[in-house]
Amino acid sequence: MPNSKLLAQARRSWEEAGLANDFVFNKVMLDKRITLEVLRRVLPALHIKRVKQVVSQQEFTSGHDAKGVRLDIYVEDDQHNRYDIEMQGANQK
After folding, report:
1. pLDDT above 60 for 1
2. For the chain, what is the radius of gyration of the CA atoms?
3. Which residues contact 24 (CB under 8 A, 6 or more apart)?
């Protein structure tokens, strides 16, 4: 019965996963309504009306030999403002 053990372990891992889990965080933040609400709460002075684009794991490089960056969640609003939403896994003060 190794398959039932693996299934039980996978189910337990899924149930224990929270928003800090990379997979869960990315799936949740791809919902434009949730992303818009997060941005509005974190940046209320900006009065963001609509989120136009939400991309998970967006990569940027400046050249073929340059080191690139990967953003957890890359967002663009209807005013062409761009936001980077990152999950902070540890409290680094």
Report:
1. no
2. 17
3. 17, 18
- pLDDT tens per residue, range 38-54: 999 999 999 999 999 88
Is the whole model's pTM more than 0.70, yes or no? Answer: no
pLDDT tens string 57-80 = 777 777 777 777 777 788 999 999
Written as six digits, the tokens of 66 are 């340059």
Q: What torsion do the CA atoms of 55, 81, 33, 42 make, to the nearest 10 degrees?
A: 110
Q: Of 71, 81, 70, nearest to 39 (Cα)?
A: 81
Indicate left, alpha or beta for 47 from its phi (over 0: left) and psi (-120 to 50: alpha): left
d(CA 34, CA 26): 11
d(CA 52, CA 79): 9
Cβ neighbours of residue 34 closer than 8 Å, sequence gap 6 or more: 28
Q: What angle do CA 81, 83, 86 make, to 5 degrees?
A: 180
